[in-house]
Amino acid sequence: MGTRTVNLTVNGQAVTREVEPRLLLVHFIREDLSLTGTHIGCDTTSCGACTIIMDGKAVKSCTIFAVQAEGRSIETIEDVAKDGLHPLQEGFWEKHGLQCGFCTPGMIMCSKAFLQENDQPTEAEIRWAISGNLCRCTGYVKIVEAIQYAAEKMHEKANQPTQVQEQEVVA
Amino acid sequence: MIPGKFEYFAPTSVSEAIGLLGQYGSEAKILAGGQSLIPAMRFRLAQPEILVDINRIQGLEYVRETDDYLEIGALTRESAIEKSTIVQQRYPMLADTARVIADPLVRNMATIGGNLAHADPANDHPATILAYNARIVAEGPGGERIIPVDDFFIGIFETSLERDEILKEILIPSPPGGSGGAYLKIERKVGDYAVVGVAVQLTMEDGLFKSIRIGLTNVSSTPMRARAAEALLVGQTPEEALFDKAGRVAAAECEPWADLRGSEEYKRDLVRVVTKRAIRKAIERANGVL
Question: Does domain B179-286 have CATH number 3.30.390.50?
Answer without folding.
Answer: yes
